[in-house]
Amino acid sequence: MRISRGQKLFALINYGLLIALSISILFPFWRIAVLSLNDGLDALRGGIYWWPRKFTLSNYSVIFAQSQITEAYKVTIIRTVIGTFLSVFFMSLMAYGLSKKHLRGRQVVNVMILITMFFGGGLIPLYLLLKDLHLLNSIWVYIVPSIYSVWNIILFRTFFQMLPAALEESAKIDGANDLTVYFRIVAPLSLPIFATISLFVAVGHWNDWFSGTVFVQSKDLIPLQTLLMNVIRENDSASMIAGGAANLTSERVRNVTSSSVKMATLVATILPVVCLYPFLQKYFVKGVMVGSIKG
Amino acid sequence: MRRDVWNNRYLYLFILPGVIWFLVFCYQPMYGLLIAFKDYDIVAGVLDSPWVGLKYFENFFRDYHFKNIMVNTVAISLLKLIIGFPAPILLALLLNEIRARTFKRIVQTVSYLPFFVSWVVVAGIWYELLTFDQGGIVNTFLMSVGLIKEPVFWFGNENYFWWIVVVSDIWKGIGWGAIIYLAALSGIDEELYEASVMDGANRWKQTWHITLPGIRSTIIILFIFSAGNIMNAGFDQIYVMQNPTVMGRAEIIDTYVMTTGIFQANYSIATAVGLFKSIIGLGLLLMTNALVKLFGEDGIL
Fold it and tell me: Membrane topology type, per the record (chain B) (predicted)?
């Protein structure tokens, strides 16, 4: 087939646009990393783009020298691990029950959870509820109110419905009950959907700054994202330098600035997600595909 | 009946914790909406607080900020809808034209990246991109190509705020948004293209007559959801990006609810404002859905 000049021109522009988009996304991330590894005072002179000019790790020594960020890491890791486990465990069970067409009353529950996708009480009634439940200022406020999500239940349910029924039926004939069928047969067959949704939920936990800002006051329960927000809004970067400086020799912290602390905190927050990124994007894309079949 | 329940006892047991959770964390707050019509007293509780009718709604409509908040919310949403909504469709169409598979995969992988970081991180990155200080990338770039003479204080001038919000929203979501369209595109029958070539159709005609109709139902469904989101405008993003100098353009309904309700503890008025928002949002969603059906398309309900 002949390729016309117009098509060649289009291909050229197309490649150009897509490369420009990729650079506009990658470069800002790269530059944050570069700045976090550069001497703070030196960076204020500008002109740093692709590579650190005065390489140093002191920005990181300062932020990790005080307990604030290590505490925040601990809180974030705990809530992510426990939260993801509980969420996936309970959501998959519910979805499995709802995937059984013969179950009486299943439509009532389906409708009941679908309604919540379109209408809810909003922030204040939820806040007052959490207050009444004594969940404010507790690590459980990060976990319990976000255990179930309608969208993820639908993803699980769709997946379970696509499993061949014959396997479960033959186990039932052999006298297995639903408990055994689910844990021995269905769950092991469904690892891909478990992986996908675990990642969805885990990233949600890792990235949540809102609950830490609204539902928690106590300093030692602040998660990483909330800490980062305080640092970026300059409430905390000065105190972090001061806090870190007390634990380090002045030689190393002399050139650390509030801007270089921000960059280092940003990188410390993103790094785990970036490391998991290859897995994330593979499973996420699969999840979206499963959803779009029946969404 | 009883035997049926007993036979399926484990299945009911699987569902039960979920039902309880939805009742407590979704339906109890709906009941809590009553305080929008009451003078909420924390000691008396929802039931025993005195009724005040629509007082708090009227207060909000008469509030000196009301017009401003509504304009900001709707304007940001509409800008996102007009500029942001077609962006992932365009990206999907462009990617669809790429024949080199490795290149396509790399661009896709890169474009998802911002989706996986929080709005706090994106705000941090954009503050740095747009900084007024020495070495701000955007200012340096625009000055070097001669578009501006001196650095612009992007985050300090409220005239730029809506645009920063719209562009950074596209930056964060375009790659992720394109996935679902790419999935729909891959479902289009190749034979349609082959047949159209026989009939002498060029690429533009193919895009217009085959590709776009092929993803029309996906576009419509996502459009209905976007229309239902007009009253939201993107709380996470705007809350982390706003600062006192741009408040005139950055206060939206949800940030107002947050400030009045959580920080100032005016529970009743904040609840009323939130309820007002959800009802209009639901109305818009149902209206768009009905409109779409009127034109003979499948809606979401």
Answer: Multi-pass membrane protein
